[in-house]
Request: fold
Amino acid sequence: MNVNTILNEAIASVKGAQFAGIVGTDGLSVAMAYHPNAAELDVDIELAELELADLTSRAAAAANRIGAGYVRDLVLETDAMLMLATQIIPGYYGVLGVLSEIANLGKARFALQAMVERVRVEL
Reply:
């Protein structure tokens, strides 16, 4: 199955999801998909993907420095969005962004984990 199809299905499976993707700790986005209405937001979701890549990189470096092992999950909750990252393989994370006002953390985490498992099969 195509990775873009997996990302779009993850967006469709979570109410309020605005983007899903794969980012690397090198700061680059590997693949991203956006909800059709995401352009209407006051949030720069294209910048969000780059910032999430940077956050995963910094979190991984911090965990390494303190000897805590690999960072498996990150959750960033803001006024506007709930953003999650889950490790696919070391150096790569699946990310999901959901509108905070209608976000359900449990459902978002479940959908992201399912997306990551499907992406692993494709890699």
User: Anything to note?
Assistant: The chain has a mean pLDDT of 89. Helices lie at 3-13, 45-66, 105-122.
